[in-house]
Amino acid sequence: MCRRLISSEKVPAESWNDWRWHIRNRITTLDELRCVVAPDEDETERLRRVVARFPLSITPYYASLIDFDDRQCPIRRQVVPSVEEIEDPDGVEDPLGEVEQSPAQNVIQIYPDRVALTVVTQCPVFCRFCFRKRLFSTTRGGAVRGLEKTIEYIRGTPQIKDVLVTGGDPLIASDSFLERLLRSLRSIPHVEIIRIGTRAPVVLPQRITPRLCAILSRYHPLWVNTHFNHPKELTPEAREACDRLLRAGIPLGNQSVLLKGVNDDPETMRELVRGLVRMRVRPYYLFQCHLVRGTRHFRTTIEQGLRITGALRGHVSGIANPLFVVDTPDGKVPLLPRRGLKRREGDYVVLETFKRTEWREYNPTADGQRKGREDH
Ligand SMILES: *Cc1c(COP(=O)(O)O)cnc(C)c1O
Ligand code: SF4
Questions:
Q1: 115 C-alpha to center of ligand 1: Å?
Q2: Which atom of ligand 2 is least distant from the CA of 197?
Q3: Which one of 96, 124, 216, 274 is at 20 to 30 Å from 41 when CA atoms are compared?
Q4: Whose CA is nearest to atom 6 of ligand 2?
């Protein structure tokens, strides 16, 4: 495969618009990769060690968004392997201890009322920063084993009100598989909401077919969270894919990861969240990058995350603000910029606004007795 195959102008429309064509024509070898980016000889040799450890996969659609001449291209950085991946002494395999947090096969449970359910292990693309990087495999996708037993576990656990279908990327599975899965989950009376986490609208928008949307719409209330990281990903194709989901009555949220060299500056993040709300996709979470082995070159500091979310608050619509979270083995911990509640002064609290001004808000102590001004 070469450059001509990664452009919507060079591929017949019936192929380009067919998600299975993109799956079949994924870029998975360094030789194919040469057609998309221009690695030098020396680099290609060193990359062989990287892809032996962490395989490579890019859909032609997503590859077509890469700027061939820009080595710092944020799309390129997300999916093209880098020698830095094997220079990461601090990284750990499973920072969330997911292996231990599993009450049943394919289920991760941290919260009392909801579980993450892994249904496949494959993804259309392998994001180089993925926190499940240890699970990348070159084997053909397909459902995980023991799914029926897992569903029986959920059926027998009435505390579970919310099932988050995840992977890999669940939408790499066939329509008929997804329909069977959703039908089983919906037949469980205590499962109130179903959520799907998928990057398909970003890396494979062709997957969001009218047929898939019709299937999903039969299992409401169903929510979809997707994963845009950079404004360059907000293409007409992605917008249309989101629109089809929205028209099927599915609310869309977005979970980004804070990534060095991709979106770790306020300007890019503002452009991203504004673009998302224009597409009616609600920014939901911004994740601090996990300490996963092979992702050192993507890590920023938590302080940088706070600076960026602080730079959004007040400067973009309230609905465009994601919550900055650090994911821990005991759940997600939201962090807010150190603005807001500064201190108490008698019956007042001092608040700091986004304009960096201070506002004294009358707020009597719990007994409700007004003791006079703070100078009592
Ligand atoms: C993130 C996550 C959820 C969902 O969390 P919300 O804050 O409800 O979106 C549920 N289970 C696990 C294991 C998770 O990691
Ligand atoms: S789509 Fe999600 S799960 Fe798959 S490689 Fe990318 S970040 Fe990881």
A1: 7
A2: 2
A3: 124
A4: 127
- What's the CA gap between 269 and 264, in Å, rounded? 7
Sheet holding 331-335, edge to edge: 107-108, 114-118, 162-166, 193-197, 222-226, 252-257, 282-287, 323-328, 331-335
Tokens, residue 39: 């690695």
Please state whether the peptide bond connecting residue 221 to the residue before it is cis, i.e. omega within 30 degrees of 0. Answer: yes
Q: Report which ligand 2 atom has the smallest distance to the Cα of 131.
A: 8
Q: Average pLDDT, stretch 97-125?
A: 89
Q: How far apart are CA 256 and CA 276, in angstroms?
A: 11
Q: Using the mean position of ligand 2's atoms as its centre, give its distance from the Cα of residue 284 in Å.
A: 17
The answer regarding whether domain 107-335 maps to CATH 3.20.20.70 reads yes
Give the three-class secondary structure for 61.
helix
What pLDDT is recorded for position 34? 84
Is the pLDDT at 309 greater than 50? The verdict is yes
